[in-house]
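We close this part of the discussion by returning to an individual protein. Part of our work consisted of pairing the sequence of a single chain with a tokenised description of its backbone. The amino acid sequence and the backbone structure tokens for this protein are reproduced below.
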Amino acid sequence: MHSLQLERIPVLEERLLERSPRLGLLERIAMRIGLWMLIWSVRFDRSEDDRLVNQEYLDREARELHYLQLLERNRPF
């Protein structure tokens, strides 16, 4: 049935013949590994971000402690 339809529409037959062949299993696996390696190589370095957040937290804690010590020393009562 499909061969009859292809004979009637030569443009469609040409497009199907020009289409690139389907990749094999090995090539698909290789492309997946390559894509994974590319994504892994440009990933965001979370450890640097975590260190920055931790340092900001420690700085804020130190400022709050210093402020509380100042309040304790300068109590009017």
